[in-house]
Amino acid sequence: MKNILIATDFSKESYCALYYTAELFREGDTRFLIANFYGEAIHKSIYSLVNEEEFVRETKISHSAQENCTKVMHQVIRDTGLPKERFEVMYSEEKLESGIKELVKQHKIDLLVMATSKHEGSLSQLQDTHTTKIINKGLPCPILIVPREMDYKVPKKIAFASDLKRPIPETSIKLFVALAEHFKSQVHVVYDGEEEGLSKKQWANFTNLKKLFPEDSVKLVTTFTHIEISRTIAEYVKNNKIDLLGMIYYKHSIAGNIFREPVVENIDRHLSFPFLILPEILE
């Protein structure tokens, strides 16, 4: 069974992420865990253990989280037609980052889903988001980021961005490959640079990557501009109507860079498509 954790703050954005995920994984043996972390709402005083008013307040917050999680679950059941047995609600007094880390371990989560926040698109607003903090502290599992209030669309065209400088471990990309196989997707491998500049090693890595997918489903696409790579990739995805973008996050690369800049952290400010971030898992 695949366990998928969807973090919710009961906003339209988080419900959109939940609905998108339920549709994307509606077939197969998948359990959806809807979780709210209300630790940010609790401001405990040093007297909270003996302060009856504080205790009552925290109890109300907990009951509200449970009630709202249940409402969200019933709504997604109505909207998708999936059985109730596929869903489970969770609510925690932990803060989002620590709560997610704990649930990922406890429930052997295969995928974490998060919605984008209502930032205006500037890098300064993005850098301290919960998503980037979770990524920077070490990707606990693949993360699917769903943009603001996006409608579900079957991912028939998907893209995988890579500099092809290192082999792509099958263990890292297996979820992306599984989606491509299930939906019979056309896969665009997006390389930022000129095709003539690819080394023999890069061609070998691309050839081995192709072997992981169904025959004739993969093509190499080169993009070369003088703008930042995250914007180049995002514009390619938008202009070619790509339904989902995947990328491996290399934790130990220099300064957190994937190409020549921190692409994973930057690309979200151009986000208008589902973005699947995959952890590096060495074979």
Task: Characterize this entry briefly.
The protein has helices at 12-24, 52-80, 96-106, 123-126, 130-136, 170-183, 200-210, 229-239, 263-267; strands spanning 2-7, 30-37, 87-92, 111-115, 143-146, 157-161, 186-192, 218-223, 244-249, 275-279.
Please give a structural write-up.
The longest helix is centred in the first third of the chain and has 29 residues, at 52-80. This protein has two domains: 2-145, Rossmann fold, CATH 3.40.50; 157-279, Rossmann fold (3-Layer(aba) Sandwich). Helix content is 37%, strand content 20%. Strands 3-2-1-4-5-10-9-6-7-8 form a ten-stranded mixed beta sheet, with helices on both faces. The chain is an alpha/beta fold. The chain has nine helices and ten strands.
Helix tally equals 9
Q: Kindly identify the CATH topology of the largest domain.
A: Rossmann fold
Distance between the termini: 22 Å
Indicate the percent of residues in helices. 25-40%
Largest sheet: 10 strands, mixed
Query: In CATH, what is the class of the largest domain?
Result: Alpha Beta
What structural class do you assign from the helix and strand content? alpha/beta
Query: Strand share of the residues?
Result: 15-25%
Which word captures the global form?
elongated
Radius of gyration: 20 Å
**Poorly predicted tracts of residues:** 119-128, 253-261
Please provide the count of β strands.
10
Q: Please identify, by name, the CATH architecture of the largest domain.
A: 3-Layer(aba) Sandwich
Order of helices and strands: EHEHEHEHHEEHEHEHEHE
Q: What's the CATH H-level homologous superfamily of the largest domain?
A: HUPs
